[in-house]
């Protein structure tokens, strides 16, 4: 018996040691899989990728067509500003368990909340309409048909997926849709690029003291630093806590905070770097093809795709158009979802894409309403380019107070407890806010100067 007992004592130790070695060996030998890497990323990746929506593609194409390689430096400048303000948004959501609107309604005046939410809903809805129109035009370029049919098809499909798909599966679909943006990296292969000039354009700012130049810079800032991105990423961090039973707001469960902040930073940096890489690819492609050929009258993403055919070939046009459709399918849910989160959290309704439709009927109704109005805008005589311009104006004006509110909220100990934002990240957030404020002032000066 004694021998058997000693044997039994040793056996588990040998087994555990063997299992540990086998697990270590399996882990060490396991090959890199893109699916695993994509799975490790979250709201930051989707937020960054959705920033390159069809309207953004039009802005970047126009910038490259008008100003050539020399405007590329803006992507290097906006990257840390985007990453800083988005990380702060994500931290607020993860720490408090509420999105931006949820925190504003708890700590600030109701009238301020109502103004911010109304402006966000209007801007997002107009943007949805413009994006649907661009997607429809791109589809028409590829296979013909009637644009309005594609508008309805894309709009209804996006809303239905958000309402009826399981949350985890839906987020997985959005992550895979980010791959469509590589179409713009592929498009570089069809352009005769002067890589020396392109690199100089990124690293050495050479401003041209003209109205067109500064208007383009303002447009780029307004496109890359958008309020709906703040709302979406903060709300998605809060949403993940509702889905994962092991997670609680950090103000309630302090353990593991640093690990969460490290995850948020990595996720955000990857997402914003990806966003700016794609934007830079679009600018360089447009500069090497459209600008080089003297074709500067680009007003939309669909115009850019169509203009590429005689210069870079039909295949380049096809790749560009497919990218517009893919990124639109990614951006429309983010735009509609951000509007629904803002309204729902502001009213303290049950919110979240992880909830069943019956459990969050008002939330889903707002989401469907925003997308529905966006679809309807394409049936009106409203010029989509004009609508997009006013959407950019609203977004620009809204971004400043939202960023100021976000910075004050992130510094409040009654909101963030021990996790108030401080140090370099805090000052980077304010730098981003100041840069956006200057951009809006420049936009206003340009608007009034142009109206005289």
From TrEMBL:
Stored InterPro entries: NRAMP_fam (IPR001046)
Where are the compositionally biased (Basic residues) regions?
Answer: 1-13
What membrane topology does the annotation report for this chain? Multi-pass membrane protein
Which keywords are on file for this protein?
Membrane, Symport, Transmembrane, Transmembrane helix, Transport
Superkingdom of the source?
Bacteria
Question: Per UniProt, what is one Pfam family of this protein?
Answer: Nramp
Q: Name one GO cellular component term.
A: plasma membrane
Where is this protein localized, as stated in its record?
Membrane
Q: Where are the transmembrane segments?
A: 111-130, 142-164, 176-193, 213-232, 269-293, 319-341, 361-382, 388-408, 428-449
- GO: which molecular function terms? cadmium ion transmembrane transporter activity; manganese ion transmembrane transporter activity; symporter activity
Q: Where is this region: Disordered?
A: 1-24
- Name the chain's protein: Divalent metal cation transporter
Species per Swiss-Prot/TrEMBL record = Bradyrhizobium australiense
